[in-house]
Design goal:
This protein folds into two domains: 52 residues, UDP N-Acetylglucosamine Acyltransferase, domain 1 (3 Solenoid); 46 residues, no CATH class. The chain is built from four helices and eight strands. The strands form three sheets. It has a four-stranded mixed beta sheet, with no helix packed on it. A two-stranded parallel sheet has the order 1-4.
Length: 110
Amino acid sequence: MPSRGDTVVSNDVWFGYGATVMPGTRIGDGAIIAAGAVVTADVPPYTIVGGNPARPIRQCFDDADAGLLRRAAWRDWPADLVTEHARTIMAGTPADIARIATEHAQEKHL
């Protein structure tokens, strides 16, 4: 039987209890997979999906804010920077997180 390819789960993805991901699917950054969902197709970044088969329920952020978060890539920050800004990462706006990423990048180049 031929392979369906690799299953790829990006960063900051949340899986609800009992979710199933079929082989060969790709789940984008920040996606939320509802409890009991059966993922049979790719899930775009920052999208909430649910059902069997899983279908988009809504976007977590608009395209502009999702882009800010993907470019900020807080998961690649040094541990001390993540620790320092943990509250903002958990509860801040995408613009807040992007601002920290920009400031950190500027400090690195000074």
